[in-house]
Amino acid sequence: MNESTPFFEPVRSVARHEVITCDAGLSVNEVAAIMQTRSISSIIVSRDGQHAGIITDRDLRAMLAQGLDPRTTLAADIMTGPLITISEDRPLYEALYQMSRRRIHRICVTDTTGQLIGMVTGTDLQRLQTRSALGLVLDIERAGSLDELRALHDEVQKMAVDLFRQGLHIGELVGTVARLNDLLLVRVLKLVRQGFPTLTRRYAFLVLGSEGRGEQTLATDQDNAIVYADDLSTEEVAELERFSQALIQALIDIGIPECTGGIMARNPEWRRSLRDWRLTVHKWYSTPVPDNVVHGTMFFDMRRLYGDPALAQELQQAVIQAVSTSAPFLARSAANIVRFTHPFGWFGRIALELRDGVHTFDVKKNGLFPITEGVKVLIQQQGLVGGNTHQRIQMLEDAKVLTAKQARNLTASFDLLLQMRLKAQFDALTAGETPHNHLNFEALDRLQIGQLKLALETVETFGRFLEQHFQLSAMR
Question: Are 9 and 1 in contact (CB under 8 A)?
């Protein structure tokens, strides 16, 4: 397949050539059993030897919501028909157009005689679209100047918007763009390093916070640090300082703003020897005053992006040891998180704020933050490390800290809130504004408000769980 223009390829290039059918006279119970056995999300319904319609997972859910009995309701009663089809020799962009225009998630494919031979789904087309990232990867790796990387940074942001608009699953979207952001940072680092031919290799460049977790889709600002070997000479340390200054400026130059809180490797407090970092980490976690809690919590998400892996690994072990054995730090962190788990005001309404004359909701502060940080403090208590929020929730379920229901609700709420945050950011970006985290509540429809409320109820319930788990009432 042509990687550069995949949507001009014929539909047959991605059509799945297995069509599962059922008779229109089967009960919905029997149809659901077939779908479960075959691990499929849709099935073609036949009547008198002809393909009459289709049943999807969504149809099954709608039927249950209406209170219909699946034992007596027939496939013909809930199927959607007639089938929407496209010929196998038509270009893929026509399939995408038909699905978008008709607001459907799959389209059936016929051969030249009109016989049904397969199906193309929205997921198939989304996977194709993510292949455009391959071209960006190659361009980033070949970039020879900061000007080129600045243009590519803009392209990554635009691609993120396109993928979001096309409905790519939020996890795949975040993962794809996070990897591209990593490649951009590493390429900048390598270009800057060319100007320091004698620079020591005994250091590691670390990314922190959401970037450390691989969850920062839009590179809104920098959060990074450097750890270097204890026995570097004075001259080596001085050159590493000059390099870090040039590196952070280069990141600013390609469009990644500096951190307003100064959490960047060019600042001495975020560029230390391994010994100094160990002492700093110990101070943070043993003395949980507000600044130490903030810094220690962010640093826990550290991830080596470039440089000596042994240095980063030793520092990470020191962090795990220090935080998992510091009950006061964990309790103080949990108490700080719980303050943001009360998103409702009077009469159970979502608490809003007025911003430029519009009622808005800060989806990061009052939605995502309590989940990501609450999950993190539980992970810290368990002495576990690594992973993004999804993976950490699974780790906590495996460790029996969270029930399967709690894990499922947290994951679903996290995805919804992240999707809403990205929409707010991408809408701002498209309008030429600085991306922000404020949902325009007045622009939400009733369904979206209902979904938001359910997600925030999960946040509130999670806050009560943290309060009980860490016995925070004893701190008052």
Answer: yes
Give per-residue pLDDT as tens, 30-69.
Answer: 999 999 888 888 999 999 888 899 999 889 988 988 989 9
Quote the CA–CA distance of 359 and 351 in Å, as a whole number.
Answer: 10
List pLDDT tens digits, range 149-194: 999 998 888 888 877 877 777 887 888 888 889 999 999 999 999 9
C-alpha distance from residue 335 to each of 19, 83, 126, 343, 475 (Å) = 54, 55, 41, 16, 9
What pLDDT was estimated at residue 4? Answer: 41
Q: How many CA atoms lie within 13 A of 473 on its CB side?
A: 4
pLDDT at residue 361, as a whole number: 93
E strands of 366-412, at which residues?
A: none
Domain boundaries, given as residue ranges, for the chain = 6-118, 131-321, 333-475
On whether the CB atoms of residues 149 and 140 are closer than 8 A, the answer is yes
Mean pLDDT of 348-360: 89
Question: Residue 55's closest CA among 85, 86, 23, 87?
Answer: 23
Q: Could you tell me which of 384, 421, 420 has the C-alpha nearest to residue 402?
A: 384
pLDDT mean over 82-110: 83
Distance between terminal CA atoms of the chain?
Answer: 64
Is the sign of the CA dihedral 349, 354, 359, 361 positive or negative?
Answer: negative
> pTM for the whole thing?
0.73
Class of domain 333-475: mainly alpha
Sequence-ordered list of residues with C-beta below 8 angstroms from that of 159, at least 6 positions apart, any chain: 132, 133, 136, 177, 180
Whether the pLDDT of residue 100 is over 80: the answer is: no
Architecture of the domain defined by 6-118: Roll (3.10)
Which element (helix H / strand E) includes 109? strand 106-110
pLDDT of residue 89: 87
Q: Which CATH superfamily hosts domain 131-321?
A: Beta Polymerase, domain 2 (3.30.460.10)
Give the tens place of pLDDT for each residue, 217-269.
Answer: 775 789 999 999 999 999 999 999 999 999 999 999 999 999 989 999 999 99
In contact, 248 and 336? CB cutoff 8 Å: no
* Total Cβ atoms within 10 A of residue 468: 10
Report the distance separating Cα 368 and Cα 121, nearest Å.
30
CB 375 within 8 A of CB 395: no
Residue 98 is predicted with a pLDDT of: 78
